[in-house]
Amino acid sequence: MSKSTDERGRIYLPKDVRERFGNQYRIVELPSHVALFPVDEDPIAGLRAAVGDAFVETEAADLKTDAREAISREVREEAEARSQAGEE
Asked: Which of these, 1, 17, 59, 77, has the minimum number of CB atoms within 10 Å of its CB?
């Protein structure tokens, strides 16, 4: 499918595309092109649909806590690695 922008830079998606994917999209700029990704009205429900039963028994708050802990752990490990590299 090929679409052009109007004089204000808008792109109009056909009705069948909007009905299939929804009305909200994330615009991702890549080095060679731009991509549109549909955004679920309920991102947690979208995640569950994408991964099946993997998180059936897990609450959204628990997922957020686990993600924050993993990020904190990675930041600490990277800081320690940089610190050790600077000491050598």
From this structure: 1
Taking the complete model, does pTM exceed 0.90, yes or no? Answer: no
Polymer length of the chain? 88
Asked whether 43 and 67 are in contact (CB, 8 A), the reply is: no
The per-residue pLDDT for range 15-37, each reduced to its tens digit, is 999 999 888 888 999 999 999 98
State how far the Cα of 56 lies from the Cα of 47, in Å rounded to an integer.
Answer: 11
Rounded distance, CA 25 to CA 61, Å?
24
Helices (H), 1-88: 15-21, 43-51, 60-87
Q: How deeply is 38 buried, as exposed, middle or buried, from its count of CB atoms within 10 A (0-12, 13-18, 19+)?
A: middle
